Structure formats: structure tokens, C-alpha cells
Predict the structure of Probable acetyltransferase NATA1-like.
Amino acid sequence: MASTTSAAALASIATSTTLVGQHQLYSRIRLATPADVPHIHKLIYQMAVFQNETHLFTATESSLASTLFNSPPFQSFTVFILEVSSKPFKNIHSPAFLPIERTVLVDHVAADPEAETFKSVVANEDGDDNVTVAGFVLFVPSYTTFAGKPGFHVEDLLVRECYRRKSFGKMLLSAVAEQAVKMGFKRVEWSVLEWNVNAIKFYEEMGAKVLTEWRVCRLTGDALEAYGDANY
Amino acid sequence: MASTTSAAALASIATSTTLVGQHQLYSRIRLATPADVPHIHKLIYQMAVFQNETHLFTATESSLASTLFNSPPFQSFTVFILEVSSKPFKNIHSPAFLPIERTVLVDHVAADPEAETFKSVVANEDGDDNVTVAGFVLFVPSYTTFAGKPGFHVEDLLVRECYRRKSFGKMLLSAVAEQAVKMGFKRVEWSVLEWNVNAIKFYEEMGAKVLTEWRVCRLTGDALEAYGDANY
């Protein structure tokens, strides 16, 4: 599994002047908390649908809750949540990561058929009852051996369908890159499907290089479990 | 950077009977300690030479020492060291990981031109003065989003040239897989060069699948540093 944001989902960017008929859409990236788990679970399922891989989807809210929050942010598995609102955000307490806010100008605020399902529990706890979870990125430290320095590997990134084409995918990936630089990390990596030329073009425009010679080897399922027997 | 062990380096396996002219080579996989850093540094350099990428080699003993041992083993960056000896190993104290030992039968014990350089400091501290560092594997937790479970990503694996073709690469990779199963992890991944057909064949024989559709995107250097400026 890897980044699934299509380039088309990431194209437009806000201009500085509001034109007639345009609306402001407030967006925020913040650290996930355990209260986000039900939303993260649903977002991962949407990603499995998008990739035609629902047969591989076995994650439960319980498996996510028990694995995602055992280390301080950025030391191990880390999730950023993308939220949107038609009103400015109230401040949240987040000492480990100052939330990133952007105001996006859109021609029309698309109807969100799942607005109620994806109502932000975390924002609501802070008295913000108008906030919707629109996407996420899950990343984890990697290691750049030749540099002797850490990096980040972006495992998955998703922007919900009705919020695509508003630069939110770029905003999420940029937030990971910015955090990497802040921490002195030397690399951010992720995977892309080789036929997704729009995404590849977009990533290259972001400054990434696509490594054409390397292939990922994956050991899972029974083939992996066989190594649990010391007599393999 | 990724696994560089060629399939040829991993082919033969010890039989259970010692034939005339054969010798026993004792081998052990154990967790690295900070005392191994000078050896790890030299092994990474040998990997850079092997990959024709010495221009990318900026790791120092100091950068390795300050980044590799900040978390308990298996929670973040983790290094297994491969050691060889012509005599049985003395026990070492390693509560976090029981060392894995194998005795390999070889037709002749190849001369190791760097035996003195790679003399094991850690084994020597335990009174074992005959032990040589022969390779390493560096791995780090990853996350299988669809399963909601951790995995391991193998960042680099190297067996020194004079110890290749003795199954040590397989032994190192298997040790990572075994540890993954022990911890309930659901995936082990690594990268391979697509033209390295011998390695791919070997990995497939180990049960791995090669993901042909996915490509790695990498953001490094100035392109990454640009994201440190909040105005990117």
C-alpha cells in the first residue's frame, strides 16, 4: 500500500483574491489522536476500495488503536489528519506539532455526502462543531544508511473524493517534508503505481525523483509466518 | 539504498555431514551495540562502493552513533550483526534478542584480508578474541495500513565479500522475518534492483513477492530542504 493521491487531486492552488462566487474553505493539518481511530479506519477502507484491494483489508479500530499511539509523535508510526471547515478553526492544544492551516478558495463548496460520518470528534471536543475529517497521511521514520541519518517513509495518503483537486494532497505531503527538515531528517520516500503518470508528474514537480530501477520485495501471509518456526 | 546481497552470495547451505577437507565455520547473529559503530560505518562504506555510490556516502561514526541507539531494539532503527569464528562462540548477555547461531560447513576457510580490521569489539569484550564481523542488516518498523499492523522494512543488508555464497544473507533476512513473526508483525519488505535477476530469484524462493507495479519516489537534498521554509 502506498500513496494513492492522484495528481488530479492535487492540482489547483488558492489565489490571493476572492472572486465573485468563490468561497473560503478552511483547512488544517494536525496530529491524530486515539479519538480519530474510527475515522482513520474508514479512510483506510476507502483507500482499499480505491485500490480494488478490499480483500486485503483486515484492519480493525482495535488493531489501529493498539498499534498507532505507542510512541511519541514522529518516533514511530505517525498520522496527520486533514480537517476542513467553512469557518475559521478554534485553537487546539498540540505541543508536539503546531497545526498547519491554509485557507483555500473554491468555486463552490462541494456537497459532502459523508459530512456527518466524518464529523471531527477531536475538533468537536474543543467546541468546534463544524469540522469534517477530509483525509490523512500515515508515515514512519526510515533510515538513510549512506547519510547515517533518519528519514520518513510515507505509507499512505488519502484525500476524500469530494475534497480532491484542492491541493490537499500536496499540503499533507509537504507537511511531512517540512517536519522531516525540522528534525534534520534527510529523506522522504513513498511509493507510486508506475502507470499513474499524473501522480508521477505531480511528485516530480514537488521535487521528488522516481527510482526506476528498484522494485519492492514483500514477504507476507503464510510465506512470512513460515519463518516463525525456528526450523525454516 | 537497499539490500545489496546478490543471490549468488546466498546460495549454498551447510549439509549435516562434514566431508574430508571441510571446515566448520561458526556464525552468529546478534543485536548491534554502540561498540559496533566503527564496523557498521565501514560496512556501509563497502556497500556504497558495491553500488558505485560513494559520492552519496556522508555517514560518520558520530551520525550513526547518535541516531541508531535511541530506542529499544525493534521499536525503531535496529541493526543485527553477523559474526563468524573458527571456534564456538562464548555466550553473550542479550536479553532483548537471543542470538541465532549456525554452523556452516565450508570447503575451505577463505582468507579474510580484513580480519584484523573487522575483529569484533563486542565479542572481544566478552573474552572471545577470535570473532570477526562479517555483515549486517539494518531494519526499521513499517506499517501495514490495510492490516492495521506493523511490519519491518529492511533498509540495508550486506555480507562481506569473502563470506558470500554461504547462506549468510538468507540467515540475516530470515532472522528479521522470524523476529517479525514473533512480534505479530504482518509484513517484511525490502528493495531490489530490477536487473538483479539472481537476487530476485533468490528472494522469490524465500517466499517474497516482487511488486512490479510500484515505484519508489524519493525527496532528498535541496528539493527536500526547500520544504523547511514555511513559504514553499
Q: What stands out?
A: Chain B touches chain A through 77 residues (CB under 8 Å). The longest helix of chain B spans residues 168-182.
